Fold this protein.
Amino acid sequence: MLICGTKKGEKKGMEKKRITQFQRGSKLFNSTGISRVKVTVEGEVQCLEIPIKSTGVSELIDSFQKQAPTPPTIDVKATPDSDIGKSLGLTRNEWVKVFDSTDKGYLEAKANHDSNLGLKILLKGINVEILDEKGTKVENDDEKVTILKEMGLSGEQFSQVVGDITSLTKWTEEEQVHFLVY
């Protein structure tokens, strides 16, 4: 458990650091950590510790959000007592345009967009080199993804690492409670 501050007799928790200036070139906001991923080798559970970083991830997410697909609109007859009618303050039945978030094409585009975003976060956030079979550093993102898949990276492991990367700079509920208490 991480806490900010300590009470008498407790172990020191999270370090507080008062900032009095920002200097160009400093790495003050760079966050690093470890993502722990479970693997089972011949019945033996192991924990892989993968170094991760947050640098550039928020910018990546922001740029991807601008490219996110939007659902098509459909015409729906809204009545004054329906949820849509109430939110629009309708006094009579009217046709209104609403987003159709159940559209198959939209759902496929959104799934593809979200998958690509996750892959980009993974590649930007893992703080290790990816090497080919000859030991040469791989630069091409598509090749990196192929290598990770060939190594057996599962969907659950992928989600764990991406979640850990995006959590490097986000308070958890527990951290917020302890941070605000002290």
User: Anything to note?
Assistant: The radius of gyration is 23 Å.
